[in-house]
Design brief:
single chain; 358 residues; alpha/beta; Rossmann fold; eight-stranded mixed β-sheet; three-stranded mixed β-sheet; 12 helices; 18% strand; globular; binds nicotinamide-adenine-dinucleotide; binds thymidine-5'-diphosphate
């Protein structure tokens, strides 16, 4: 039975990953280690919270002593490091926490994995540290090219530079110590449980509330969108079959301009929910500082070496996503009211600081 230490598992992708893994494997144990920042929400994990192969620990990835104890008390096989401050706009406003969590937190986890897994002649067999990174470390593209794993790192935002720094540190630990690692760099994700500060859930939420939809600049910035479950499957594939020390880009050639995404969502809600949801909600606003123009992943390596490809195209994925948010309006509401935080914090305290079953 393999034991996964998943950090940031109460966030958007981490919670989707835990649900995906527990649905697909009954012979694994998952320890979800999350600080529960504003972006962490245990509500995301309600469907698996009773699973006896799942345990939640409210911890900061920068906390050396507590995580040392987690490594000591559990035979961790895989660290899957999702934990991060993840929103570019917040990193522009308040960068310091991005450097602390995304860089120093990763260093702390790496050091603990290294000291726990190290043997006299290398590392215990079957162990791996998976750093969940992002295509944003590569910077911005012109109109035609693509990010490959060999594209030079050239991050532009404080968020991207914090992720790039962590990647370089992970790489240096592989080069120096040969600690078993993989780095994954995925394009923009969308799907259930994404915090409504990010473009797609923000647009859906604002349409439902009939609030204006802020589009930065001319709305022609391009992102390469991947349905979150495809990302989770890719991570599973990298954990199981990725070659040690390798970086894998993850994406599905779904490049869309922001204005296109917004129009697709408005059109769907207009036709299927409420005819008063129209393009009139769109408001072009001042551009994001240093706004990257275009991201686009070349996924050739993961396709050809690990035989992964996405299964959900954008047209299908966006409809699934919109319908999920329509069915889960309470989730959006609770997020903004903070009720769920109080509910889970009470439960957490009642259970003596540990929520879940070992
Ligand atoms: P998110 O903001 O939704 O979730 C982050 C999670 O990390 C939250 O649960 C939060 O509580 C937790 N966290 C934050 N600081 C912590 C700390 N110090 N200790 C422990 N837990 C902490 O983020 P997401 O969108 O799910 O992204 C997850 C990872 O995937 C990030 O590393 C991000 O860089 C990467 N990524 C995201 C995308 C995307 O489109 N969202 C794309 C590519 C890569
Ligand atoms: P975002 O979801 O923040 O992801 P990232 O910046 O990590 O790619 O933003 C996606 C794109 O949408 C990006 O080009 C910025 C743009 N955007 C807006 O135009 N308006 C908004 O309110 C937000 C949140 C993003």
């Amino acid at each position: 039975m393999k034991t996964y230490l998943v950090t940031g598992g109460a966030g958007f992708i981490g919670s989707n990953f835990i649900i995906y893994m527990l649905k697909n494997y009954d012979n694994i144990k998952i320890i979800n280690l999350d600080k529960l920042t504003y972006a962490g929400n245990l509500e995301n994990l309600r469907e698996i919270e009773e699973n006896c192969n799942y345990i939640f620990l409210k911890l900061d990835i920068c906390d050396k002593e507590s995580i040392k104890k987690v490594f000591k008390e559990n035979d961790i096989d895989y660290v899957v490091n999702f934990a991060a401050e993840s929103h570019v706009d917040r990193s522009i406003e308040e960068p310091s926490i991005f450097f602390k969590t995304n860089i120093l937190g990763t260093v702390n986890l790496l050091n603990l994995a290294k000291s726990t897994w190290e043997t006299k002649n290398g590392f215990k067999k079957g162990k791996k540290f998976i750093q969940i990174s992002t295509d944003e470390v590569y910077g911005s593209l012109g109109n035609t090219d693509y990010f490959t794993e060999d594209t030079p790192i050239a991050p532009n935002s404080p968020y991207a530079s914090s992720k790039a720094s962590a990647d370089l540190i992970v790489k240096s630990y592989y080069h120096t110590y040969r600690i078993p690692v993989n780095i994954t760099r995925c394009s923009n994700n969308y799907g259930p449980y994404q915090f409504p500060e990010k473009l797609i859930p923000l647009v859906i939420n604002n349409c439902l509330l009939k609030k204006s939809i802020p589009i930065y600049g001319d709305g022609l910035n391009i992102r390469d969108w991947l349905y979150v479950e495809d990302h989770c499957r890719a991570i599973d594939v990298v954990i199981n079959t990725g070659f040690l020390g390798e970086v894998y880009n993850i994406g599905g050639h779904n490049e869309k301009a922001n204005i296109h995404i917004v129009n697709v969502i408005i059109k769907y809600l207009n036709e299927n929910l409420d005819t008063t949801i129209t393009e009139k909600l769109i408001q072009f606003v001042k551009d994001r500082k240093g706004h990257d123009r275009r991201y686009a992943i070349d996924p050739k390596k993961i396709r050809s070496e690990l035989n992964w490809k996405p299964t959900t195209n954008f047209e299908e994925g966006i409809v699934k996503t919109i319908n999920w948010y329509l069915k889960n309006k309470n989730w959006l509401h609770n997020l903004t009211s903070g009720d769920y935080q109080n509910y889970y914090m009470d439960m957490y305290k009642r259970q003596g600081g540990m929520y879940g079953k070992i």
